Amino acid sequence: MMETLEGAKLCFPQLNSSCRKTMRPYSESMVTYIILSSISVLTVTLNLLVIISISHFKQLHTPTNFLLLSLAVSDFFVGLLMSFQVALIDGCWFLGDLMCVVYTVLDYIITSSSVGTMVLISADRYVAICDPLHYPSEVTQKRVKVCICMCWMCSAFCHGLMLKDNLQQPGRYNSCFGECVIVIDYAAGITDLVLSFIVPITVIVVLYIRVFVVAVFQARAMRSHIAAVTLQKSVKVTAKKSEMKAARTLGVVIVVFLICTCPYFCVTLTGPDTLLNASSAAFVICLFYFNSCLNPLIYAFCYPWFRKSIKLIVTLQILQPNSCETNIL
């Protein structure tokens, strides 16, 4: 009987060198499983709707929306990767050493690309609000696509290089079967933290503070001269209001991003000596992943085109001929 109980605590009961399972109360494990599974399914579904919307409807093919598409793609993959976190609830990895490394590399690439896309979104809003006359000529679809591709390629190259040793010998740092351990060189880890978090977050905050200051100034200027606006100028004012609304919406996205990701990166920054228990660590990780689920919800509240496109997708009207030409705005 004792041997059976002892075997039940092992990831691989048939192996003497198996890792031990993390023993938690059944209720806690089930709640964690349900929460993570729900967030994963919701994240994948909502971001898939964003991807289909922007990809399908031609009216949505704008530089800003392509940046949102890149963010939705990274968030979509985050939702898929969360299923691996669900599998790790009891502390056992059953998918082999190679999949462990692949999962970690993808996690790093997607996270870094998401942060890079946020920087591009901030730069897009900075040019749109602070230099609106040059925005149409400077921020073109082609340039935005090139920037997005460069963002993903640089992220893949840098993190592939950083995790090269782990890729060459998967499982080299595991102490037992059923473990998923990745070791990164200290200097490489610090460099990654600076380039993937500290520098991008600083750029995002600085750019959006500038956008906020200019937006407030422009709003006051428009209110003070509203009586003298001609029909021709009113078109420009409407365009400016549209840009300001987009800036506010994307500002909400960025603020939510900072709230959800900063605790995770701060824990990473403080290192292994940080005073966190298992529950606190789990909360920080869940908050980090939950951000990917929140972005489409923000679009649903702030963008009428997203609500309209969801209706067309759910009712399968996008399968009709020439549905991509539908007036969605």
From TrEMBL:
Keyword Lyase appears in the UniProt entry: no
SUPFAM superfamilies for this protein: Family A G protein-coupled receptor-like
One cellular-component annotation, GO: plasma membrane
Transmembrane segments: 30-54, 66-89, 101-123, 144-163, 193-217, 250-270, 282-306
Keywords: Cell membrane, G-protein coupled receptor, Membrane, Receptor, Transducer, Transmembrane, Transmembrane helix
Gene3D superfamilies recorded: Rhodopsin 7-helix transmembrane proteins
Domain G-protein coupled receptors family 1 profile: 46-299
Membrane topology: Multi-pass membrane protein
Compartments in which it is found: Cell membrane
Domain of life of the native organism: Eukaryota
CDD domains associated with the record: 7tmA_TAARs
GO molecular function: trace-amine receptor activity
UniProt similarity note: Belongs to the G-protein coupled receptor 1 family.
The protein, known as: G-protein coupled receptors family 1 profile domain-containing protein
UniProt source species: Dicentrarchus labrax
Gene behind this protein: LOC127365345
